Structure formats: C-alpha cells, structure tokens
Amino acid sequence: MEFIETSEDLRKLYKAPGDGAVRKELRALDGHSKGFLGKSPFVLIGSSDGEGNADVTPKGDKPGFVEILDDTTIAIPDRPGNNRLDTLENVVRNPAVGLLFLIPNMNETLRINGTARITADNTLRERLAVDGRPPISIMVVSIKAVYMHCAKAFMRSELWKPESWHDRATLPTLGQILRDQLALADSADATDKWLDESYKKSMW
C-alpha cells in the first residue's frame, strides 16, 4: 500500500474548495454561532500533546453549558469524570484544540478551532455551577476560526434516525466490556450497578 506524503499530492486527488467553503470561516462568533452554542448540549474536543499523541474527548451538559465570554472567547466547564485528564494535560503541553459542537436532530455542526488554557478561577467556576456544584476546572478557548459544517456526514450515517439505530439490548453493557477487558472479579451486573450508582452521585 502506498501512502500520500505531501500536501501537493493530496490536493491532486481533490477539486479545489468552493468559494463559499473558504469564505464561511469566521474569526469571531456571530449571531448564528452564538445561537448554536446556546442550544448545544454536546461538544467533541480534539487535542494533542505536541509529540504526535492525539485525543478526542466528549463533553456533555445542559444545553448552552459553554459560556460565551466575548466574541472570540468561550469557556467549557469540566465536570467530574475518570480523572485521566488526557485532554487537559494535552492543553497544558500544547494549547491547540479543535471543537465540534452538536445539537440533537440537527445534521449541521459548528466547528471552532483555537487555543486553550485551563483555569480554576473561583469567580468563573461559581458562574458555571450546576445545582450549586462548580466545575473542577474550566477550559478557556481563544477562537481562531469558527464555521458551520455541512450535513453530509450525518445524512450518510443517519445518526439521528431511530430506525437506523441498533437495539441497545443486543449490545454489551459497559460492565460486560470492562469485565472482559480488565478481567474483573466482579460480575458484569455488579459492575453495571456500581456504574449506575456512580453516575447518580457524580454528574456535577
């Protein structure tokens, strides 16, 4: 198998991007992108440690959980998780991030690229608290590019069409997966029960 090694060779395979695809990239949030952020309950964050090790992590919360600090700055709260800190440690080493925001049942997405820093500023943490529980830390992103992404990927995948979904009962539970992958002594049911209790106690 041969691999493409240069941008020039890669570009030979594709047509030039259309004028709209180029001009749609903005340098700051406009009314539409602010409205999208205000309705989005979910974002995927791409990061890298700068040494070739990449990571994508999901962040989900109540719609509009990402705070707009100004036209070129947003704040993403970090709620309790598994404490691996893959993304946060990447950002400390290499601030470049790529964000993909989703709204359920909407095929178009919002993309934001920029640089991020991590803060535990108490004023901002209290501002982003849920039910009196502030986030542990906050990722503050300085925007370099923001634009809407077209619907083709979601249309091809039929992601939002229930008739295309797998029956959840036919798929393994996380307890079953962890039991097999980690050779746990506990049963899958016991692990699933523990996970359910953990979710109830540590969402925010």
UniProtKB/TrEMBL annotation:
Domain Pyridoxamine 5'-phosphate oxidase N-terminal stretches: 33-150
Annotated InterPro entries: Pyridox_Oxase_FMN-dep, Pyridox_Oxase_N, Split_barrel_FMN-bd
Pfam family, one: PNPOx_N
Domain of life: Bacteria
NCBIfam families assigned: PPOX_FMN_DR2398 (TIGR04025)
Protein name, entry field: Pyridoxamine 5'-phosphate oxidase family protein
Organism whose genome encodes this protein: Mesorhizobium zhangyense
